[in-house]
């Protein structure tokens, strides 16, 4: 049976401190007489008893709702002191209090006072003076130029969830140059931006340009909030947080070793949960070396981005935060918004001067991928420029004067259709897309959709018209009106998307259904009578199928003879 007694580190600590404080001759003096110096050379002292080394940054961990205590001893009066606490992954609260030491000559010192009782219990039983309290996400500091000989007690509590945090305590703040320095103006400036990129500029760190320290600049970009600490940025990236524990352990069975193993497991579990949750930040880190200008690209339009800059020592990873900024990227202009087309759905687009270009997306999925994609665009008045894109490559372009049909094969994902008016004046048009030919909403116009006039049959009160057939079951409606002599461009002003519903009843000549054998005729003819002599008329023919849209043949202007043949 193994009955070896494993004493805690606190058993040896009073002896260590007593030896370090023994009155020795100069030639006999130990290398250091401050408990923090021993903690610097032996990290176990920090993790077991919370003794902060002088001039060294330490990383610790506190589970949610727990409080950790740390001690920093100052040996002499009028000593400058700087204590800084930096939270990493969550908000913390901390209090700093002071335990004054007896005056010189009393035979007592900071080390004596700590060695008289177990270090974990001493601060909790002695009254102290609260010097500073802080709660938040930022790095908090306590600075004094005339500290008395005392022991500072730092109590840190994690509020939201378990988090790592960094503590830096020093009695030589003026000469340390422990962290990179900020310039006199530490603001990050936005020099330009648009819908998907932002350009930033900042002033260099004196540590870089004056002291020539190995400093690099790192930008943190996300869409949630500003981060004011470098370890906070690193903790928001999976696997990027600081390791709060020493790489080697004493294996003496100290309480701290068991706490470390437990805390490691908590950190891993919390990071795994955070990475899967919706609260996981979309953090991107870009380190740009010694540049003081940088452009971030591939951003989303109309989105708020937060930018934080850090000057980071490349050797020690110690850092200082500039004043971050945020900005909304420019939104897509209204005419660049993509309209989704439904399979078999016909859309009418109204012309708009503010949006001469419109984009349409037609997705293809499932069994539809084996079918051709049929796209039809009907211009109502003016010429349209049409482009069809597939996987970022333009595969078709054409000018649409009236009605244009496209058939696209091998569409795996989706098509992008861009439609632009050829003129500055707006025009209406219709757009249709499908993978099912039976859904086609238009009748089939012949290649030649002009209305012809038999000149030798033209009379003073009648004309004979003819037009090519669509070769399918259809209904043809013939309309006419007198041409207004004051309008020279009346035909060009007509809206080709209009049908019989947009015409006056008095303008209707007839409607004729064609089916059966008659549907196979190459051409249809009609004699229009009861006209005025010497008068110009405009004739329109509209064709519609069963349950389909109406299309118009090209208008025809005809003038009756002034005198009638005898």
TrEMBL record:
For the keyword Cell membrane, the answer is: no
Secreted recorded as keyword: yes
Q: Where in the cell is it found?
A: Secreted
Question: Signal sequence: where?
Answer: 1-24
Gene Ontology cellular component annotations, sorted alphabetically: extracellular region
One of its GO biological process terms is: nervous system development
Coiled-coil regions listed: none
| Stretch list, region Disordered | 103-130
The chain positions of domain Fibronectin type-III read: 180-319, 443-549
Residue stretches of biased makeup (Polar residues): 106-127
Keywords of this entry: Glycoprotein, Neurogenesis, Repeat, Secreted, Signal
Q: What is its main location?
A: secreted
This chain's function reads: Secretory protein that plays a role in various cellular processes. Acts as a chemorepellent acting on gonadotropin-releasing hormone (GnRH) expressing neurons regulating their migration to the hypothalamus. Also promotes neuron migration, growth and survival as well as neurite outgrowth and is involved in the development of the olfactory system. May also act through the regulation of growth factors activity and downstream signaling. Also regulates extracellular matrix assembly and cell adhesiveness.
**PANTHER family in UniProt:** NEURON-DERIVED NEUROTROPHIC FACTOR, PROTEIN NDNF
Protein name, as recorded: Protein NDNF
Task: Output the lineage of the source organism.
Answer: Eukaryota, Metazoa, Echinodermata, Eleutherozoa, Echinozoa
């Amino acid at each position: 049976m193994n009955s070896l007694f494993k004493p805690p580190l606190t058993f040896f600590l009073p002896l260590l401190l007593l030896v370090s404080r023994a009155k020795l001759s100069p030639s006999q003096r130990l290398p250091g007489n401050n408990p923090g110096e021993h903690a610097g050379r032996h990290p176990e002292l920090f993790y077991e008893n919370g003794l902060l080394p002088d001039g060294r940054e330490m990383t610790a961990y506190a589970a949610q709702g727990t409080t950790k205590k740390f001690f920093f001893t100052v040996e002499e009066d009028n000593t400058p002191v700087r204590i800084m606490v930096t939270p990493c992954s969550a908000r913390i609260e901390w209090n700093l209090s002071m335990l004054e030491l007896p005056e010189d000559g009393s035979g007592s010192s900071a080390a004596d006072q700590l060695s008289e009782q177990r270090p974990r219990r001493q601060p909790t039983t002695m009254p102290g003076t609260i010097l500073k309290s802080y709660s938040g996400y930022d790095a908090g500091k306590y600075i004094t130029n005339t500290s008395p000989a005392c022991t500072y007690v730092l109590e840190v509590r994690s509020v939201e969830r378990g988090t790592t945090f960094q503590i830096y305590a020093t009695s030589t703040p003026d000469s340390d140059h422990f962290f990179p320095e900020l310039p006199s103006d530490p603001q990050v400036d936005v020099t330009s931006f648009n819908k998907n990129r932002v350009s930033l500029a900042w002033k260099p760190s004196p540590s870089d340009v004056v002291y020539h320290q190995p400093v690099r600049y790192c930008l943190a970009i996300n869409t949630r909030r500003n981060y004011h600490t470098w370890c906070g940025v690193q903790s928001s990236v999976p696997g990027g947080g600081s390791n709060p524990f020493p790489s080697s352990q004493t294996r003496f069975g100290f309480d701290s070793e068991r706490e470390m193993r437990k805390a490691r497991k908590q950190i891993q579990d919390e990071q795994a949960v955070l990475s899967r949750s919706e609260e996981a930040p979309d953090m991107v880190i870009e380190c740009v070396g010694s540049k003081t200008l940088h452009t971030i690209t591939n951003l989303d339009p109309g989105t708020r981005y937060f930018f934080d800059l850090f000057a980071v020592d490349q050797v020690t990873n110690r850092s200082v935060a500039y004043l971050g900024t945020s900005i909304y990227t420019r939104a897509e202009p209204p005419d660049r918004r993509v309209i989704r087309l439904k399979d078999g759905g016909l859309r009418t687009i109204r012309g708009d001067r503010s949006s001469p270009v419109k984009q349409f997306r037609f997705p293809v999925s499932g069994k539809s991928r084996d079918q051709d994609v049929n796209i039809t665009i009907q211009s109502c008045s003016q010429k349209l420029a049409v482009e069809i894109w597939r996987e970022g490559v333009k595969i078709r372009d054409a000018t649409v004067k009236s009605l244009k049909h496209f058939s696209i094969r091998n569409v795996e994902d989706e098509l992008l259709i861009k439609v632009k008016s050829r003129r500055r004046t707006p025009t209406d048009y219709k757009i249709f897309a499908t993978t099912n030919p039976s859904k086609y909403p238009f009748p089939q116009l012949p290649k030649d959709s002009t209305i012809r006039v038999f000149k030798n049959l033209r009379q003073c009160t009648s004309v004979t018209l003819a037009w090519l057939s669509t070769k399918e079951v259809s209904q043809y409606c013939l309309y006419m009106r007198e041409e207004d002599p004051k309008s020279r461009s009346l035909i060009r002003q007509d809206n080709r998307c209009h049908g019989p519903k947009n015409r006056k009843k008095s303008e209707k000549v007839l409607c004729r259904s064609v089916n059966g054998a008659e549907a196979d005729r190459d051409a249809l003819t009609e004699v229009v009578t009861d006209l005025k002599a010497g008068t110009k008329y405009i004739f329109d023919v509209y064709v519609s199928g069963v349950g389909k849209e109406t299309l118009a043949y090209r208008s025809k202007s005809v003038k009756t003879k002034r005198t009638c043949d005898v």
